[in-house]
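Treating backbone geometry as a discrete language has practical consequences that deserve illustration. The amino acid sequence and the backbone structure tokens for this protein are reproduced below.
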Amino acid sequence: MKIIACIDIGTTKLKAVILGDGGLVMEKYTYTDPRAIYRQIIATYRPDEVYVTGSGSRLLDGVEGYEVLNELECTAYIVRYLGLEEGLVTNIGTGTSFTLMSEDGYKHLNGTGVGGGAFVGLGERMLGLTEPEAIESMARGGDLGEVNIIIDDIYPEGISSLAGDVTVANFGKAGGSNQDVALGIHSLITESIVSMVRALLFHSPVRDIIVCGGVTENQLVKELFAKYSALFGFKTTYLEDPSYGTALGMLALVKEKYGDKDLQL
């Protein structure tokens, strides 16, 4: 069996998946020199084929031995990696992209600057925290009702089928503890993204949503996403290793479009 290496070079991290006789290996690096990491991967695994994607792939200019693939197409092929026929991939990285995979192929529907970059940036400006894990930890003791205006604040008797804790206005209230603000940041980022998903699929029969990207390693983000996905009637799948989504999609793309039909994913 040939050895295939798929490398996703993002804004701050390099993710690699290597498929060969030994099965699937996944590695992640915070990089300062992606060329050195690339050479290390090649020396260690000696792959027969190497595919690269991501915003940082240009940093390998001048290095030989790989083919660059379209990042959005790789991301869309996560649907195929999961064995699904169609679905909307919501990839929450530094920013967020929305790619639709159907029987007609893939389509990039939209993107937003609301994502991990905004999450960390708001955490630093509002709380003085620079690590995503620290923001998540602080948010554990928070109460969204202290910073967000929610349905119960406006319609205590209820309205339609909306639950009383559904957000009406993010950070619509002054005050709140640092814990409340930290949870409010989670709410602002996640609810904005889910609302965009709802708008993109309003006239579509697609209800399978695949959520990936490093931000979804955050359990609170997943809980908020699940809450609003249920509200809109979506079936949401989270990757077990969300940071590797695009690289895993590359494997499925190579299998389907590049003739490696015998690859066992």
Remarks:
- The first helix runs from residue 34 to 45.
- The first strand starts at residue 4 and ends at 9.
- The radius of gyration is 20 Å.
- Residues 126 and 181 are 8 Å apart (CA to CA).
